[in-house]
Amino acid sequence: ALMTGNEYVESLRKLNMEVYIFGERVKSPVDHPIIRPSLNSVKMTYDLAQEPEYEELMTATSHLTGKKINRFAHIHQSTEDLVKKVKMQRLLGQKTASCFQRCVGMDAFNACYSTTYDMDKKLGTNYHEKLKKYIVYCQENDLTVDGAMTDPKGDRGLAPSAQADPDMFLHIVERREDGIVVRGAKAHQTGIVNSHEVLVMPTLSMTEADKDYSVCFAVPTDTKGIKMIYGRQSCDTRKLEGSKVDVGNPKFGGHEALVVFDNVFVPNDRIFMCGEYEFSNSLVERFAGFHRQSYGGCKVGVGDVLIGATALISDYNGTKKASHIKDKIIEMTHLNETLYCAGIACSSEGHKTAAGSYEIDLLLANVCKQNVTRFPYEIARLAEDIAGGILVTLPSEADLNSKEVGHYVEKYLKGVATVPTVTRMKVLRFIENLTLGTAAVGYRTESLHGAGSPQAQRIMISRQSNLEAKKQLVKDILDIDI
Ligand code: SF4
Ligand code: FE
């Protein structure tokens, strides 16, 4: 059954995850002030699914059980499902102004679903049925699953099996009757501390020598041997200071962590690839394709909020009538909606896989993500332009409340007379949070490197561009027959 947001929080509280921040084990991650805003973002994926207004986008009917499930646990059954996925992500970006983390599991499910089907067909293995059982388990219990792909990679010039340290890519260290033991790590794991389960996949194409690295499996996040080392974000410790104004976004956030698998045991029923190196490429390509589509939704939703904050600060600054301000906001909107166009296009141009599920148009999904590596930076630049230099020289909330200097801050940081200084400060901090603070992780650098760095999309665009057919178009018109 679907969990409420509060049930989700309580279900996480019951897990015994091994999480470290500033060198120390965190007793209760759910209540940690640095982690909590990121938990609130995932909670929103549960809360909105309870609201009739959002039911259409937030829930789906499982093709495996016929029951109503959260869309984040769904295997896409049509291009309409793919479009709804992007719209759901835009909605959540709008509601949280953050990364809400639950998409990686959804994208991993869908990539594994079609790949295990192909694998079984070619090799006679039985991974697809096992995966289906696992997906049903996650759907029925409405779990948050983290999709884990990126290995630390060590020397980028060497294959997994050729690394000086064999653990630079996660691999099988022991094969047992009842399962396998794995060792390695996964880097930048979005939302792992807020997840019940982790679904691990290989990170690149493999050859026979990398057989032990071609492994896909799922385990609960509190499995023995899993250690999460929480990633720092710019301005993260402001959350320990107690000021709601200074943190920028006091309610929501995102997180990533370095996740170590120190000899973790995986039982047979949770292994979905175990040495079939020739399928690791399709798993990687499909997951990347789905996650590149995802960014055409989530980053657009966050962009909507940043554009809103920018329009608001121009109201508060008294600049909203200036024609260049209006034009810059038009430009921000144009860029943001261009991202959305590709997100929707790669979805509605999607197609059915051999397994019966639907996947996106790969070329358009890569174009979508390539745009995402650029446009949020320009949108952020325009936001900073309109906000003004005060964005980075603003005194703290404590100064505003100080007996000695508070009245100066109040007086001199006022914009238009009708808006309280503290309100203007809140919006400035909110913009700072998205462009330079904790949320810039998701809005800027993750836009660049998440779901694959820019060059990875260019390789895919080049492979899908079909230049020969384009040359032939010219030859046909000009009657060239060589
Ligand atoms: Fe979802 Fe976007 Fe966060 Fe990826 S970056 S998990 S797509 S919200
Ligand atoms: Fe991401």
Write up what this structure looks like.
The chain has about 475 residues and is an alpha+beta fold. The protein folds into 2 domains: about 5-280, Butyryl-CoA Dehydrogenase, subunit A, domain 2 (Beta Barrel); about 280-470, Butyryl-CoA Dehydrogenase, subunit A, domain 3 (Up-down Bundle). Helices cover about 45% and strands about 15% of the residues. The protein is built from 16 helices and 14 strands. The chain has helices at about 5-15, 35-45, 55-60, 80-95, 105-125, 125-140, 280-315, 325-350, 360-370, 375-385, 395-400, 405-410, 420-435, 440-450, 455-465, 465-480, and strands at about 20, 25, 60, 70, 145-150, 170-175, 180-185, 195-200, 215-220, 225-230, 255-265, 270-275, 350, 360. A 6-stranded mixed β-sheet has the order 2-1-10-11-7-6, with no helix packed on it. Strands 5-8-9-12 form a 4-stranded mixed β-sheet. Strand 1 and strand 2 (about 25) form a beta hairpin. Helix 5 (about 105-125) runs antiparallel to helix 6 and helix 9 (about 360-370) runs antiparallel to helix 15. The longest helix has about 40 residues, at about 280-315. The radius of gyration is 24 Å and the shape is globular. The model has no long low-confidence stretch (mean pLDDT about 100). Fe (iii) ion binds next to loops.
In short:
This protein is of the alpha+beta class. The protein is about 45% helix and about 15% strand.
